[in-house]
Every structure is written in C-alpha cells, then in structure tokens.
Amino acid sequence: MFTTTGSRGLDKAPLSKGLLLVLSGLTVVLTLLPQYHHLFTYSLQAITQQQQVWRLVCGRLICLDLKDTFCNSLLIYNFRIFERRFGSRKFASFLFGTWVLTALMDFLLAEAFHYLFDYQVAELPAGLLGPVFSLFVPFYSSIPKVPVTQLLGQISITNKSLVYIVGLQLLTSSPYMWLVALSGLISGKLYHSNALRVQRLLFLPRWLSRVGAFLLEPLFSGLPPPNDTPLGMGATLDIQRQQRMDLHDQQMLLAQFNQARRNHRPPQDGLMNWNRFFPSLRHRGQNFAPEPQPHPSPQQPHPSLTALAPTAPPLDNTPVAEEQVARLMEMGFSRIDAQDALRASNNDINVATNFLLQHLG
C-alpha cells in the first residue's frame, strides 16, 4: 500500500534517500552514545531562558527515539512522490520553509497552551517531525483516494489508509507530539496555500540547489529499478504466474514503446499516444468471456503484418467516469491525458495514476 501512489524504490528521489540514510544513521549513532543526547534535545526552556539558539537546529533534525525514527522514515519514504512530481528543489524548499515556520509555531502554540491551561511546556519531541507532518497537507489534497479493499465489509481501506495509520502512531508516541503535529499542519497549510507569499520568501535560491545537486546528488542518486526482477522462489504457482504476467506486460509495454519510436509518428498536440503503451492484458488468465473482435475494415493492415507485433485495440470509444477524470485533474494533469490514461487502463484509476506520475509527473 506504500507503493500505490508511485513506483517502488527511491529512484529520482535523491533528497528523500539522503534524509533517510543520514537521519536514521545519526539516530543509531546517538543510541550508541547516550552521553550526547542532551545536545540534541529540543528544549524550549533552554532556548528562551538560556539563549541556546543552536537547539533550534540540533533539536529539530535528529530523532532520539527509535520508534519515532521508524515511523518518520516510513512517512518520508511514502512522501518521496512529491519530490518525483515537483523536483528536488521545490521539495527541498517545502521542507525548508515548513521547517522555519514550525520553529515559530512551536513557540506560539506553547505560549497559547501556557496561557490557557497555566502549564509550561519545557521540552518537545526532537527530530525532523514538523516538516513531515506538514507534508500531510499536500498528501490529503493532491493524492487521490483509491479504494483497495474493505474490512469487515463496512470499513473501506484505501491507498492512503496505512499512511494515516503511521501518522497516528507517530502522533501518539509522545505526550507533546500533538503540539508538534499541529504546528506542522498549520505550517504546511500556510506554505501550501502560499499565505503571505511565504513560498517566495522561503524558496531555496537556484545557486544553493545547484551546489546541493553537485555535492549530494552523486552520493544519493541510484540506478532505476531493473525490469527483470527475479521471480520469488518460495511463491505459490498462482503468485509465480501473476509475476510472470506482470513481467510480460512490462516487456510488451517496452516493445510497443520502441516500435512507436521507430514509426517516427510525432504525438498530436504534444500528447502521448496512450493506446500504444497500454495493451489490453489486464484480464488475461481470468474467467471472463473473450471480447468480440472488431470486423476488419479496408483501413486496417493485413493480418500477416499485425501478427508480427501485437497492438492494443482501439479505446477511443471507451467511456470514462468524470469523477475519476476530476481526481486526476486535481493532481495537475490535463483533461485529455487523464481521459486517455483511463481509457487505456480500462478505467482503473490506480494504474492510470501510477503511469501518469511516473511518466508525466
């Protein structure tokens, strides 16, 4: 369920990969060296009374609890889809902007809590928690909700349910984690809606992004996931058969893509010819009646030529649901691309979303 909004792995997400490796590694190091924990605690009292401003940096980067680190890493891994869609610079600007805003919101909410309940909040959970909670704002508004299954026949499980469960687990891990979460959500809403033009004020300059790409991207960028993934040795026959079908589908897509390039037919109006990329292989091997083949017309090629390379049947007349088209348009894709993707994927919004995010995101 963590891969329903994009492909597996950390391909095209070097910043997310760097955050996962560096922050998790530093947490393990601090676990082995507990005598240095006091340097990375997020103490509001030490910042305000002892002027230890450096705690705003050290206390808001590294988690001191392994459970918080695990949940935080799962959320960063899932939110890598925003780096693939917007680019590393815009994703880094979002994290930096919300990181600055949450520093201010933490003090404002702590003072409001002290004024309302007469209780002083001396210390908050440490780590890169505020910006991660702020990513729930674009996740809620930009990623479409696709039903996956139902629990007990009544509770609907979607592709976003597990992400919210992990966020809830992180929210209940510490007494004052709710304050950090509320600060992150408010900061994420302010930055996402560009209130008071904070995106322009807290956007990373181009020269800094170039320096970061030159120094850090070669270290954390990896190879794309291979297409020839070996089949599971311990899988059942049904799982092995499904894996072979998926592998064959990927090979068919790649072969048709290469054939489309050899035919040197430019796409009309700058759009992709979706019918060439999606063969009707989704219901192979299932107990469905075979679809009637269209009658040959004078414009169709000779059967001996079509037997050389399989092509997808025409999908121009396939009806699409306007609700699914609207969901894809909310993610920033054009109406024509959304309609073509839904027609080509037999109205499966999950497959259409994955293809649009991977190839046009």
Mind explaining what this structure looks like?
The protein is mainly α and 361 residues long. The chain folds into two domains: 207 residues, Rhomboid-like fold (Up-down Bundle); 105 residues, no CATH class. Helix content is 55%, strand content 4%. It is built from 19 helices and four strands. Strands 1-2 form a two-stranded antiparallel sheet. The chain has a two-stranded antiparallel ribbon with strand order 3-4. A hairpin with a 3-residue loop joins strand 3 and strand 4. Helix 1 packs antiparallel against helix 4 and helix 4 runs antiparallel to helix 9. The longest helix has 30 residues. The two termini are 20 Å apart. About 15% of the residues have low confidence.
In short:
The protein is mainly alpha-helical and 361 residues long. Helices cover 55% and strands 4% of the residues.
**What can be said about the biggest beta sheet?**
2 strands, antiparallel
The CATH architecture classification of the largest domain is Up-down Bundle
SS element count, helices? 19
Strand content: under 5%
Kindly name the structural category. mainly alpha
Number of domains: 2
Q: Report the span from N to C terminus.
A: 20 Å
Unreliable stretches: 227-235, 264-271, 278-315
The total count of strands amounts to: 4
Kindly identify the CATH topology of the largest domain: Rhomboid-like fold
The residue fraction in helices comes out at: 55-70%
Please give the CATH class of the largest domain: Mainly Alpha
Question: What is the N-to-C succession of helices and strands?
Answer: HEHHHHHEHHEEHHHHHHHHHHH
Average per-residue pLDDT, rounded, comes to 77
| Overall radius of gyration | 25 Å
Shape by Cα distribution: globular
Strand order of the largest sheet: 1-2
